[in-house]
Amino acid sequence: MNPPQDGLGSLRFSVLGAGRVGASLAHWAVAQGARLVCVASGSPQSANRLAQTLGGQAVAAHDLASHGEELLLIAVPDAALASAAFLLAKRRQASVALHTAGSRTWQVLSPLQAAGTEIGSLHPLLAFPSPRLDPKAAYGVVFGIDGDRSAQLLAQRLAHAWGALTAVVPPESRLLYHFAATLAAGGVATLCAVASGLAERLRLPVEVSQGYLRLAQSAIEVSGLSGAPAISGPVARGDAGLVESELQALGEVDPELLRLAVSLALETLRQLRRAGPLSDAQEETIKRLQDG
């Protein structure tokens, strides 16, 4: 996928929060022709670094005010959004303010709305273990958005310029939308870490852990291509005898992981049941799992 040609050449913006997400989105915007005016952050060093790199001015958060910008991008932790909005509302801000938090609705910025700024959200469904400054990282990413009409239109404009997609997530769905995002990212990463930890405990070659990671990637890729979860393995097949043997072996090595494995097995079969009736073997597997 290639970025659109119209870009963001007329956009002037400021940023509050120069961490992994804020720095990444600022780089993507500038790469498409936008101009960074001011940047503030809880870390003055991060603000200075971003300003020096992209050509804006580093300021203190309480001094952040509009110089005619169209956009104020707020990329602070979810829990800090309410206090940030209250602080920002004391000074005139950009025409539109978008926050990047997944669990908060656009209404968390209501103090800015009362001060005359259109408000909304722009949450990237992308992991940021470190800043992702290459604008190609945005291609195909889905952004969860909501907010005032003008804010949503600007969010869509940004996403389009980056070669990304948008989906409106209404306020009543926001918390569980974010929870599901943590399952899709942190949950998968946690399970891969568990698999690698078992391989290490069994003193298997490091290539086995690498193989588990590639196996997880391939399952996700197949799910994306088919439009259905790529659920496989002895639980999905209903091989109750093998499942019991593996769980018994796991319990001898790590009893705490056994509870997780049983819960995952039951959830696997629950997901399969959503797609259609289970086989007798699968139903038997559920019975044995529930009976312990």
What's the short version?
The protein is 51% helix and 13% strand. It is α/β, with parallel strands linked by helices.
Word description of this protein:
The chain has 292 residues and is an alpha/beta fold. The protein has 2 domains: 12-169, NAD(P)-binding Rossmann-like Domain (Rossmann fold, 3-Layer(aba) Sandwich); 176-291, N-(1-d-carboxylethyl)-l-norvaline Dehydrogenase, domain 2 (Orthogonal Bundle), CATH 1.10.1040. The protein is built from 11 helices and 8 strands. The protein has helices spanning 20-31, 44-54, 81-88, 110-114, 149-161, 174-201, 206-226, 234-237, 240-253, 255-275, 280-291; strands spanning 12-16, 35-40, 57-58, 71-74, 96-99, 118-124, 142-147, 165-168. An 8-stranded mixed beta sheet has the order 3-2-1-4-5-6-7-8. It is elongated, with a radius of gyration of 23 Å. The termini are far apart.
Write the layout of secondary structure elements.
Layout: E1 12-16, H1 20-31, E2 35-40, H2 44-54, E3 57-58, E4 71-74, H3 81-88, E5 96-99, H4 110-114, E6 118-124, E7 142-147, H5 149-161, E8 165-168, H6 174-201, H7 206-226, H8 234-237, H9 240-253, H10 255-275, H11 280-291
Parallel strand pairs: 1-2, 1-4, 2-3, 4-5, 5-6, 7-8
Antiparallel strand pairs: 6-7
Keywords:
292 residues; alpha/beta; Rossmann fold; N-(1-d-carboxylethyl)-l-norvaline Dehydrogenase, domain 2; 2 domains; 8 strands; 13% strand; elongated
Give the overall pLDDT as a whole number: 92
Main sheet characteristics: 8 strands, mixed
Q: What does the radius of gyration come to?
A: 23 Å
First-to-last CA distance: 49 Å
- In the predicted model, the low-confidence regions spanning at least 5 consecutive residues are 1-5
Q: What would CATH call the architecture of the largest domain? A: 3-Layer(aba) Sandwich
CATH superfamily of the largest domain: NAD(P)-binding Rossmann-like Domain
CATH-defined topology of the largest domain: Rossmann fold
- Beta-strand content: 5-15%
The geometry reads as: elongated
| Number of discrete domains | 2
- Count of strand segments: 8
Question: SS-based structural class?
Answer: alpha/beta
